[in-house]
Structure formats: C-alpha cells, structure tokens
Amino acid sequence: EAGVAQSPRYKIIEKRQSVAFWCNPISGHATLYWYQQILGQGPKLLIQFQNNGVVDDSQLPKDRFSAERLKGVDSTLKIQPAKLEDSAVYLCASSLRLPSAGRLAKNIQYFGAGTRLSVL
Amino acid sequence: KQEVTQIPAALSVPEGENLVLNCSFTDSAIYNLQWFRQDPGKGLTSLLLIQSSQREQTSGRLNASLDKSSGRSTLYIAASQPGDSATYLCAVYNTDKLIFGTGTRLQVFP
Fold first, then answer.
1. Chain B partners within 8 Å of A104 (Cβ)
2. What is the mean pLDDT of each run of 10 residues along chain B (110 residues)?
3. CA-CA distance, A117 to A101, in Å (whole number)?
4. Disulfide-capable partner of B50 in A55, A88, B27, B66 (CB 3.0 to 4.6 Å)?
5. Cβ of residue B42 closer than 8 Å to a chain A Cβ
6. For residue A119, how many other CB atoms are within 10 A of its CB?
7. Exposed e or buried b per residue across B75-86, where buried means at least 16 C-beta atoms within 10 angstroms of its C-beta
8. CB of B91 within 8 Å of any CB in chain A?
9. Which tens digits make up the pLDDT trace of A3-62?
10. Facing B43 at nearest CB: one of A40, A95, A114
C-alpha cells in the first residue's frame, strides 16, 4: 500500500514570492491534514479536510495561506506572499475517517515525508 | 486546552544504555497516544500507538506506557544503538486532532 506522497521535498524562495505544495493521501482516506513544523517545535495543525470540505482551519493564516482539496483526494497548500517566518517543514497526513467515528475510533494519522521550505 | 510536554529536550548517551523518554499532557480525556520518530529533514515515522484503554505497547526494543490518570507516557528504549539517534515526538489524540509535544532529541554515540 502506497503511503502519503508529498512534493516537492525541498523549496527555496525569496520573501514575498509564492509557493505551492502538493499532497496525495493514502487511497481511501477521507481525512487530510496539513501541519507546519518550525525547527525545534512539534508539528502544528494548519487545516483539516474531510473529503473536500474544510473541518478546521482555525490556525491557518488566511491572509497568506490557502489550501484546497477539490475532488476529495489530492490537496495543495499555497503561501502567497511568503515571509521569513514561514520557513518550516510542511507535513501532510491522512486518516480513515471511520463512519462510526467516536470515542473508540482510531483515526490514526499517516504522515508524508514533508516539504522543507526555506524563505530567504 | 491540551498541552503536551516532553522531557528531556535533548539527550546524549553512549551506545548500550537503556533510556526513558517522558511525555506529559494536561487533559487526561485523550483517546489515543502515539510516539513518532523523526530523522533530520524527514517526515514522521510511527513507532507505537497506545489506545486509551491500554496501559502499554511493545515493539522490539521499544516499550511505551500510558497512565491517563496522571497524564503521563514514557517511551523506554532498551540497549540503545547509534541508529536510534533521532527526535522522538509524543502526540495525543483529542477526537481526531493530534496534539504534539516539542520532542526529545536523542543522540547515541558509539
């Protein structure tokens, strides 16, 4: 079974430029997550999709970040314009959102290799 | 608001030592707890998942325990090897949200 695919692996841009990241989740996984991991910190959730709908984007800086999952499969995360503080690893994860999701549902998340962004 | 703390932040040990990494969380109403490994510049590799009804999980030289009432989990690494050098992240599941700690950076030298 193929894992979560992300591209590119690395990206270097100058501040005020735009950048986009792509994620292909595990086949059949309805839920997709984007995380930002700044050096020395744990990953922080940016946005969560259930199929092609947004479930939680409360921590997404909406003035510069946007994300979409048009067909409920692949997703793209965009930053425009980038700032120095956006330098981080961007991780994509997916999970099976079981129909009987509740307290006992596992909802285990599987992570991609990440995209390392350097903003100069 | 759930907060996850990991101690120590960094650890450097000689090969062969047995290690204990600590994770604490403020809200005991968690569903699952997961330990990850992260190599420099790489994504996350899942090591162990403990469901809320379980007390521990084992995989090879790794053993993770969970005490929900005290808000603690420990990751025990037996007979450490240089290949174990990485950052270890603890994360708790609140419904489908995963809250991460800041990690313990481990270096095992020959």
1. 31
2. 92 96 91 90 87 89 94 96 96 84 95
3. 34
4. B66
5. yes
6. 20
7. bebeebeeebbb
8. yes
9. 999 999 999 999 999 999 999 999 989 899 999 999 888 999 999 998 889 989 999 999
10. A114
